[in-house]
Amino acid sequence: MKIVQEKGVGLGLPLAKRIVDMQGGTIAVQSEEGKGTTFIISMPMESGKT
User: pTM, whole model, 2 decimals?
Assistant: First the structure.
């Protein structure tokens, strides 16, 4: 899937990071010039946070 966005306020990634962090997950980024960027979100099967 390819998503191209030309306009926005830039809140998507910071918001996603905050939500993922709150659930004990991580976000990784892989980027290659001319080929694009991939965001990898990893979430624990069970959250130990209360």
Answer: 0.62
